[in-house]
Amino acid sequence: MDIGFIGQHLVNGLMQGMIYSLVAVGFTLFFGVLDVIKFSHGDVLMVGVFAGLTAFFGLDALGIENPYILVIAIILFSTALMALLGIVIAKILILPLKGAPPLNILLITLMLGTLLRESVRLFYPNGSNSKAFPAILPTDSFTWGNFSLRLDSVMLFVAGAAVIVGTYTLINRTRLGLAIRAVAQDEETARTMGINFGFIVLFTFALGSAIAAFAGVMNGFYYNEINFSMGLLLGAVGFSAAIIGGLGNLYGAILGGFLFAGLQTLAAAALPFSSSYKDVFAFAVVIALMAWRPTGLIAEKAYARV
Amino acid sequence: MTNRTGLIVENATTGYDSADVLYGVSLNAEPGKITCLLGSNGAGKSTLVRLILGLTPARLGRVSFNGRDITRMQTHKVISEGIACIPEGRMVFSKCTVEENLLLGGYGEKDDALLTKRMKTVYDLFPRLAERKQQLAGTMSGGEQAMVSIGRGLMSEPSLLIIDEPSLGLSPLLVKENFKIIKEINERGISILLIEQNVRQTLAIAHYGYVLTQGKVVAAGTAQELLKDETMHAAYFG
Q1: Per DSSP, what are the bridge partners of residue A253?
Q2: CB-based contact (8 Å) between A98 and chain B?
Q3: Which of A64, A219, A265, B112 has the fewest C-beta atoms under 10 angstroms from its C-beta?
Q4: From the candidate CATH numbers 3.40.50.300, 3.80.10.10, 2.60.40.1080, 1.20.1260.10, the one assigned to the domain spanning B1-82+160-167+191-238
């Protein structure tokens, strides 16, 4: 094994880990404030990517070519639209069902996911086929021996890290974040403090959905290909990552995301079977981990739960 | 200027699911006074608190505060009218620090300077909290958590403070200490609605009181009157 091979896998693993972590953060936020599992999360991500692609076509038709303007516009459009979708989902489907058994919310969001997925497949022009996602980030690369690191990968990774740090800061260092943590710990007492519970829930759903859209766009820029069912696997992985870390725990979600990507990378690079088994391997290890630590790797520490 | 009539509950009936817990309860917590609500377990005391705060909606009746109808208000709006609550069982945010708990108590106030000033007042009242502002509330003793909960209730500078069973789960010494502090808070001009089971200590500091039995007010009067009231003795001691 040479350094270039290891390096390539490392970069790929880190990028995957970042994407998974971002998806897992959403699951953990929703579970934190409302104790619900929102299974449409992966599909919201997918809709976000398609929204980004649409924004790109729109700007392209207007003749805008500056890649930075395009990238920023794609990200802003996608995240803003999904934040809005998150609010609509919370307002129409989740909050009215607050007193209902959690299984109902699970089922409803599962169906919503299918609805979103099938809608994109049926109504997006030529939606059942994969689409090329624009490769507009600079692809200059730095080369050391036979290992080359592309500038676009670095930019995506840094942007993803910034989103995670930003979310962490928001949750742990701001007044709004304090209110989110209070609601996560004890909804009624939080309301008794004068916190507008409904607003906190809507904000959290907007935030989680926007982060998912960002993860999707990041995924699109990295692989330059998207399709209507991409949210299924990303949703399942993000959910597993949140569970391994300990649902409701922000650090756990991030750790879980990177751990899952690490397992996939290990399977693809170092294990003696075909890399197409990487998901099988990673999920099998997750199952084993869950049997060993049913509440997640990080025992819920006092300060950690959002 | 709103008129200072304090808290008025008129003919409130409410409950959970199909069962009513309160039947036509009326009471008045006058401004500047300590009003107490006595009753044994299951009398409906906490339900009345939930009703006032808008956590459990009223089925019938009306709740008003300083002349404003708060019957159907959402909880955070009720709080912004100038009501604060020290909930039963203290209910500190155990995974937040002492300082964060206090900040949550003053959540409606956006002026940082004002919050810092109020926090200083709380630390003056409970110097021990000042020493431990960075400690997670969940790792503190019951007595310390009681201080956090009381301090948190003061952070919004409420005009009415509802205190739900402050003596629950505390040692007799701490209970005594707590009642002393409640009296002090009242002397600073904050009206208090004190929910308690502990008759003698409560009536020793309260101005006026109500006795709740099985969801109905069975006796009301000044503290001295209640001490002599036979209905109350019957309600308590059967």
Answers
A1: none
A2: no
A3: B112
A4: 3.40.50.300
Strands B34-38 and B191-196: parallel
Query: Which of A195, A198, A303 lies nearest to residue B107, judging by beta carbons?
Result: A195
Q: Which residues contact A103 (CB under 8 A, 6 or more apart)?
A: none
Q: In percent, how much of chain B has pLDDT > 70?
A: 97
Q: Report yes or no on A298 lying in a domain.
A: no
Domain boundaries, chain B: 1-82+160-167+191-238, 88-157
| pLDDT (tens digit per residue) in B172-186 | 898 999 999 999 999
Cβ distance A181 to B96 less than 8 Å, yes or no, reads yes
Q: Which chain A residues have a beta carbon less than 8 Å from that of B152?
A: 193
C-alpha angle A103-A288-A29 in degrees, rounded to nearest 5: 45
Quick check: B153 and B125 in contact, CB under 8 A? no
What number is the ipTM of this complex? 0.92
Q: Does some domain include residue A95?
A: yes
Higher pLDDT, A210 or A37: A210
Q: Do A303 and B95 touch (CB under 8 A)?
A: yes
Pairing of strands B191-196, B7-16: unpaired
Contacts of A179 in chain B (CB under 8 A): 104, 107
CATH number for the domain spanning A183: value is 1.10.3470
Report chain B residues whose CB lies below 8 A from the CB of A181.
93, 95-96, 100
CA–CA dist B64, B28 (Å, integer): 10
In the structure, what pLDDT confidence band is assigned to residue A306 with cuts at 50, 70 and 90?
very low
Number of domains into which chain A is organized: 1
Q: Which domain, by its residues, includes A56?
A: 7-123+151-292
> Is the residue at A187 inside a domain?
yes
